[in-house]
Amino acid sequence: MAKKRGTALEEHEKRKLNKQNLSKLGGIFRFVLPYKFNFFLGMLFLAFSSLTLLTFPFVAGKLIDAASGEEWLVTGINNIAFILLGILLVQSIFSFFRVWLFAKVSERSMRDIRIALYRQLVQLPMTFFDKRRTGELISRITADVSMLQDTFSTTLAELFRQIITLLAGVVFLMFTTPKLTLFMLATFPVLVVIAMVFGKFIRKLSKETQDELAAANVIVEETLQSIMTVKSFAGEDYESNRYSTGLNRVVKVALKAAGFRGAFISFIIFALFGGIVAVMWYGASLVASGEMSVGDLVSFVLYTTFIGGSIAGLGDIYGQIQKAIGSSERLLEILDEAPEVSTADFQQIPVAGDIEFNNVAFSYPTRPEVEVLKSIQLKIKAGEKVALAGHSGAGKSTIVQLLLKFYPVLKGEVKVDGKPVNDWNLKQLRSNIGIVPQEVLLFGGSIRENIAYAKPDATEEEIIEAAKKANAWQFISQFPEGLDTKVGERGIKLSGGQRQRVAIARAILKDPAILILDEATSSLDAESEALVQEALDELMKNRTTIIIAHRLATIRKVDRIYVLSNGEIVEQGRHEDLAIQEDGFYANLVKLQFAE
Ligand SMILES: Nc1ncnc2c1ncn2[C@@H]1O[C@H](COP(=O)(O)OP(=O)(O)O)[C@@H](O)[C@H]1O
Ligand SMILES: [Mg+2]
User: Fold this and answer.
1) Residue 398 CA: which ligand 1 atom is closest?
2) What CA–CA distances, in Å, run from 276 to 117, 175, 297?
């Protein structure tokens, strides 16, 4: 918690502490419920340790009085000192257990929140991901959950502790030294109000500093991401200057804030000790007139510092709770989203692979005003190979996304094996469709795991067989670790063509009835393309296949080509027929490509 002291709350992080907002924190509290026993036990230890510590000033006062020979329950300076040590020991034992118990509760409940959140995230529909940036979602599962973890492990406990200290302290003082307490209570609030006003102003300035720093950091991020561009334009000096200008602005604002902070701190120190002087002065005169003992004055001063400390702490806690409410709100928002419909159990029945689009029109939910597909009509019989051609942005990939039920089909009908996709069990439908995309992203892990992704229980023989059919075995078997070679971040980097062949092996193992190749060879050089094409030909055997290809040479042999333009099918037929059509759309595409 300490590291967050003094950092300003972002405007969007602030939440009023009203009933409705507090109930949001309550909504997250359901994750703590399973561990409520430990939580309340922790609270109990916390109460014990706070109350034990509160007896400390009282006994310390008695120690001073014992020096001037006054009598108490136990006599002698040494004995009272031992009692003080005893109090410290007991309170440290209590403190240990409350820290341990709260950690147990918060670690486990935060794990549960993260799991629930992740499960929810992966089950949300594509529409959700269209609206959110990945970075934002990651910060939900990291930063926001950590914020709540702080809240449930320390902030709530602190709140509880400060309130106990404050109330018990004031009540105790009112009881033992009423006159001096009233005097103290009269001076304290004035200080607190002044400190709060000042504090708010300083927080605003330190937020400005943070904003400037963030702006400067963007420069670093941007340039490092596109370092090639920077270097190719010889822009190193320009960027360095830009960065140092940004940093100078940070220094300027930070120094302004530091000026105010300095003034604030010296004021607080002056006022605080001024207050102490005033109280001591009044206390000393009470001691002089015999109304109070020296020991009582000492314990009074100690109590007052306890109370002062908890008032200062409460301000901090208030800000923390405001932030925590913001975090809960954002988490609940995700947890309350509706997941994709049932991916529950289903009967695996064989799928033939007939595909039909009946008068399908479609707009992406994020851009409802643009009709990406307009009355698409197509019919692909099981086992046929067809191609979708057309300029980029024509709507080819969108057709595939509808087939996969990534988005709901609202106008017209998409059918697989004569049954509308809307009626298909999501998991069953998708488990029968294989995709080889243009950019294959492999998961960090071994090549074996990547190939077996669609069939985790595949045997070694099946995996090798698939790799062989995909033309991937040649390079995999050359790695010293073979199938167990790690790929991705900390492993071997595979070339585009090699990644593609791993993806093909994965699809072969999945053995889907329907296969989709979305520009699968578009980003490969001629040599890899030949190898990948060979593997693809093997993969396409006995499957309904939709090929989306940029290079028209790869789709000459298909049964039928659909040519798309602006979301409409403008031509369809075999390559030989379409290519010779005078002024035909496809014929023009072909001409353009050969002119390249
Ligand atoms: N997730 C999306 N949200 C909104 N619009 C999209 C989305 N994906 C694609 N589009 C738009 O839909 C149109 C068709 O895209 P797409 O089907 O990917 O074209 P193609 O695959 O033929 O190049 C484009 O104008 C594109 O900008
Ligand atoms: Mg596309």
Assistant:
1) 17
2) 51, 20, 12
